[in-house]
Write a structure and sequence with these properties.
The protein contains three helices and nine strands. It has 154 residues and is α+β, with helices and mostly antiparallel strands. The protein has a three-stranded antiparallel sheet. Strands 1-2 form a two-stranded antiparallel sheet. A two-stranded antiparallel ribbon has the order 3-4. The N and C termini lie close together (8 Å). 4% of the residues are buried.
Length: 154
């Protein structure tokens, strides 16, 4: 819980330093023994497959709306901009780094990933067999796959 508060404070401080006071932000951090370090913070929502989390429901409707729709409703002051998200802790992890450069020959470990408590979907979508995968380094991300998880608490 203390780590979550440190991440929240770091996000607030970085947004304030950039003059962002309203609307969505996309923020990425590194966490180590010395604390929380911002890597990226921009005035935009999370996108792509990651934008499927969290699920947001309008009133008593059973099907969730997308994050983009919620943001448009808020910006245009339409009803539903105060919609509630599902009452689960939810997140997405993108497997975006490779230990070495080369050609992707196989994807393994999907069953092991699905067996992790809370993981409800494993999706290897961006990398295709026989695609070139860049080596390590933050300067180039490959988005090899995604894990979607949720739990009753954080």
């Amino acid at each position: 819980m203390q780590e979550q508060h440190a991440i929240e404070q770091c996000a607030r401080d970085a947004a304030r330093a950039l003059g962002i006071s309203q609307g969505p932000i996309h923020a990425e951090f590194r966490i180590n023994k010395d604390g929380v370090w911002p890597l990226e913070l921009a005035p935009r929502p999370i996108g792509g497959l990651c934008g499927r989390r969290p699920a947001i429901f309008l009133g008593s409707e059973k099907e969730p709306i997308g994050l983009e729709e919620l943001l448009m409703r808020h910006a245009l002051e339409f009803p539903g901009s105060d919609s509630q998200r599902e009452q689960f802790a939810a997140g997405v992890d993108d497997d975006s780094r490779s230990e070495k450069a080369g050609v992707l020959e196989a994807v393994t470990g999907e069953d092991a990933a699905r067996a992790v408590p809370g993981v409800h979907r494993f999706c290897s979508v961006t990398a295709r067999l026989h695609d070139y995968v860049a080596g390590p380094g933050l300067e180039r991300f490959n988005y090899l796959g995604f894990l979607f998880a949720r739990a009753n608490d954080s």
